Amino acid sequence: MSQLAALIIDDEPDIRELIALTLERMDLHCDQAGSVSEALSLLKQRPYHFCITDMKLPDGNGLEIIELCNAQYKDMPIAMITAFGSMELAVNALKAGAFDLVPKPIDIERLRELARAALKLTKVPTNIDAIPSSEGLLGNSAAMQDLKEKIRKVARTQAPVFIHGESGTGKELVAKLIHHQSVRAEQPFIAVNCGAIPKDLMESEFFGHLKGSFTGASSDKPGFFKAAHGGTLFLDEVAELPLDMQAKLLRVIQEKAVRAVGSEHEENIDVRIVSASHKNLQQLVDQELFRQDLYFRLNVIQVSVPRLAERPEDIPLLSGHFIRKYAQEWGMPEVRLDSKAANALEQYAFPGNVRELENILQRAFTMAEGDNISLEDLSLPAAEVINSQNQEDIIETNNLEAYLENIERTAITQALEATRWNKTAAAEKLGISFRALRYRCKKLAID
Fold it and tell me: Tell me: the pLDDT tens digits for 354-368?
């Protein structure tokens, strides 16, 4: 196997030599260029496994090289050397496709870590459909093909990613796939629902705390950032963070260091941030509900997840997947959608997106008699009175669901006891199918 090669582009010979010495000790062959023209000439002569370029060059700038390499040498990761305070240029470099940034003055250990990460890309799988996940990114529509291609591209960088999409579209799945296709795939993926953390516990949950630092802190806790060290931290519903927590999050992202509650020392962290929200962050910035500087940090690359209504041709594939899933989980024979039910699903607006489709089919699977799911089994709401705006008005009903589950458990238990646990007779007594009773017993853990 031929030796791995790196191209170093900088108009300062001392910096080129420093980088070359560092990379050569990692067994990389290094070529050096002091200008855009020299770099282009070398790129035509041989393939490189890694490239690092300065922003300002005598006959152009590093952005030109990044854009060219992303167009002509897609498999070669390229890093950008950035000066202190040039955040806008750094963001532009990441948006143009830079793998990562190397701040000046150059930290040798940071350079080594970056080079090791870049070289791992040759071992990362390129087929997104071959990567295991809880559900898989299902769909062959043009919208889904575009999404899969975007995931492939952003996974090859270290840039922060913001995922936008309505509730139920699969934003966390997209975040996982970005992680699994990246050089961080073997490191932790930590998902955090920012809207589910009590405000007074946020700092401790994110940054950790030391034992005794506050009432109830009975032991040390690492926090989300340290738990995700080396990997990816997924901040779901990031728009729900209060402004004071946004400021603290911004500082950690800028400094790449966290200080646990009760500690006097900061610890360096290496985490890629992927965030998501169903809300429009730019509108929240305009309303002064979200910090503009944090928005720029998080929204370097945006990935939009399409609504299910935008890809109705994927509904049959998704429907078949969910029916097979519950048949396997519950140990029951598969059923099929009859033609009217299948047509109704393709015509329905799905304000709750893929999550709603799964819930509808889960319920219909339990209610179906025989081998087919009928239109009646689907129990679809009137589509014309539902629109995407309603999705933001949905109220959490966890307490109501628990209350209803208790009522259901009592009714089923009474019916089973009255029939001496004959499930066929109990189902008839309750006025439901045997399949529905089996499902409910499994769901409610009734033996």
Answer: 999 999 999 898 888
Q: Which helix or strand (DSSP H or E) is residue 249 part of?
A: helix 243-255
- pLDDT value at residue 79: 94
Distance CA 83, CA 32 (A): 20
Q: Is 1 exposed, middle or buried (0-12, 13-18, 19+ CB in 10 A)?
A: exposed
**Pairing of the two strands 56-57 and 60-61:** antiparallel
Structure tokens at 432: 């439901």
Nearest in space to 138 (alpha carbons), one of 323, 351, 273, 339: 323
In the chain, the domains with their CATH numbers are 5-123 (3.40.50.2300), 128-304 (3.40.50.300), 308-393 (1.10.8.60), 398-443 (1.10.10)
Name the DSSP letter for residue 331: T
User: What angle do the packed helices 315-330 and 434-443 form, to 10 degrees?
Assistant: 80
Can you tell me whether residue 83 is helix, strand or coil? Answer: coil
Predicted pLDDT of residue 136: 61
Measured CA to CA, the distance from residue 270 to residue 221 in angstroms comes to 18
CA-based end-to-end distance of the chain: 61
Q: What's the DSSP call for residue 246? A: H
pLDDT recorded at residue 385: 31
Render pLDDT for 131-165 as a digit per residue (tens, 0 to 9): 544 346 899 999 999 999 999 889 989 999 999 99
Question: Does residue 128 contact residue 137 with C-beta atoms inside 8 Å?
Answer: yes
Q: Quick one: the chain helix, strand, coil %, rounded to 5?
A: 50, 15, 35
Q: Are the beta carbons of 211 and 219 closer than 8 angstroms?
A: yes
State the chain's mean pLDDT as an integer: 86
Question: Using N-to-C axis directions, what is the helix angle for 339-347 and 353-367, rounded to 10°?
Answer: 160
* Side chain identity, residue 380: L
Range with the poorest average pLDDT among 218-232, 256-270, 388-402? 388-402
Cα–Cα distances in angstroms (integers) from residue 227 to residues 191, 239, 259, 444, in the given order: 11, 22, 14, 33
